[in-house]
Amino acid sequence: MFLGLEHTAIASPDPRALAQWYVDHLAFRINFEYDGNYFVRAANGTVLEIIPSDGARGEQRMRDPGIRHLAIDVKDFDAAYAQLKSQHVHFLGDPYTNLGNRLVFFTDRDGNLLHLIQRERPLP
Length: 124
Hints:
Elements: E1 8-12, H1 15-26, E2 29-34, E3 37-41, E4 47-52, E5 70-73, H2 77-86, E6 96-98, E7 101-107, E8 113-118
Parallel strand pairs: 1-4, 5-8
Antiparallel strand pairs: 2-3, 3-4, 6-7, 7-8
């Protein structure tokens, strides 16, 4: 009956610009748009909906309650990291290894938390 997450939504003061950021930096593609809402799809089929926001953004810390980050799966961590560095993406620290997985945290143009991850082994 339940199939899984169909998409995740992010509210942005400029949905078009944020959608384009995902296209330009993470090779997503805009696959649907209506009334200022943008759906962007990653190469693996996952979808983000980017909607217009209301009001000011609150402070966002790594361990605040709620959704904390989007993890971006990569095949070649070093190449992905180098590309984002060349595009002047804001990183929150240096890459590190955790349980054999390579990762680094960064933000999109609106300050949403993301991280690159290259897993040593897929999750069970």
